[in-house]
Amino acid sequence: MTTNSMGDLFVATLRDMYFAERQLLKALPKMARAAQNEHLKQAFTDHREQTQQHVERLQEVFEAIGQRARGKTCEAIEGLIGEVEELLGDAPAPNAVRDAGLIACGQAVEHYEMARYGALVSWSKGLGYGEAAKLLQLTLNEEKAADRLLSQVATDEVNDDALKVAA
Ligand SMILES: [Fe+2]
Ligand SMILES: [Fe+2]
User: Fold this and answer.
1) Residues, beta carbon < 5 Å, ion ligand 2
2) Going residue by residue through the chain (167 aa), what tens digit of pLDDT does each one get?
3) Are 41 and 35 in contact (CB under 8 A)?
4) Does the domain at residues 6-166 carry the CATH identifier 1.20.1260.10?
5) Which element (helix H / strand E) includes 157?
6) How close is the Cα of 80 to the center of ligand 1, in Å?
7) 135 CA distance to ligand 2 centroid (A)?
């Protein structure tokens, strides 16, 4: 698809996020299973539920602007999920260290989503897509909250435990 206008760019970015969110639906349960800290496990599990909502909201946004919901390969999310797989690979780190790594990977994903949804909210307002702006803002708020929760689990619990693991 050629991107000649802000309308095109908006749709192209929606497709990118539709792909990304559906990949995350598959990745988050793996992250929850791998997490040892109970609060971290819960955070990933809860965010998977929210991610299901993000997929549904994107479908509503496509519908609101008269486009068919369709994803387009997002190399950024594939790379970020690839880093999770690397962390959980052949020789996984000790538990607390792995949890610290999972949090960092999770936050990289949330920051990516925040950047994209931030742009989508602002563009949709400019394009006069009021319904889309409202839906995308809800998702943006949840990504920010997920990011804050991960920071909290890291600073309250996981980082200290990870730093105690002998080198
Ligand atoms: Fe999301
Ligand atoms: Fe997210």
Assistant:
1) 113, 143
2) 678 999 999 999 999 999 999 999 999 999 999 999 999 999 999 999 999 999 999 999 999 999 999 999 999 999 999 999 999 997 777 789 999 999 999 999 999 999 999 999 999 999 999 999 999 999 999 999 999 999 999 999 999 989 998 76
3) yes
4) yes
5) none
6) 14
7) 15
Task: Please check whether residue 80 is in contact with residue 116, taking contact to mean a CB–CB distance below 8 angstroms.
Answer: no
Residue corresponding to tokens 């996981």: 158
CA of 166 from ligand 2 middle (Å) equals 32
- Cα separation, 104 vs 14, in Å, equals 25
Distance 136 CA to ligand 1 centre (A): 10
The model carries a pTM of 0.95
